[in-house]
Amino acid sequence: MRGGYHPHRAARVLADAVAVGDVRAARLHGVSRRSVERYRARLVSDAELAGLVADLLRALERERGKTRAELLRRVNGELGRRLRSARLDDLVGALAVAGGLGDQTFVQVADLLIARLNVRDRILAGGA
Q1: Which of these, 40, 92, 96, 106, has the minimum number of CB atoms within 10 Å of its CB?
Q2: Is residue 53 within 8 Å of residue 63, measured between CB atoms?
């Protein structure tokens, strides 16, 4: 596919440029950074190229969403397994870390911490 303009190739280059930057995308596809700039300038007047880039970006976003969702499921599962056997002070530390991992993880850790606190309070009160 060397030489000349190829809209599918230009679209792949531009979609990758969004993800990894112009210089890296140019290297990945064996084109110059200037070619990436020319492809981007062409977006304004080339409806086919614009459509191809939009399609590729939507596909990348769907894939990124699937990958992120799967990663969060695995992290939540592993975190849950570890926290079920964790000491109370470990749970407090995990709660602080979980704040950066998203609402679902934070709620999961908070629920485990509350459950542990309730059990501990019942034990201290002579109940459980």
Answers
A1: 96
A2: no
Task: Give Dmax (Cα) for the chain.
Answer: 82
Dihedral sign for Cα 25, 28, 31, 33, please: positive
Written as one string, the DSSP assignment of 40-107 is HHHTTT-HHHHHHHHHHHHHHHHHHHHHHHHHHHHHHHHHHHHHHT--HHHHHHHHHHHTTT-HHHHH
Cα gap 123→28, rounded to integer Å: 61
Give the integer Cα–Cα distance in Å for 72 and 66: 10
How confident is the model over 81-110, as a mean pLDDT? 61
Distance of alpha carbon 34 from alpha carbon 94, whole angstroms: 47
- Nearest CA among 87, 85, 72, 83 for reference residue 111: 83
The type of residue at 7 is P
pTM given for the model: 0.52
**Mean per-residue pLDDT of the chain:** 75
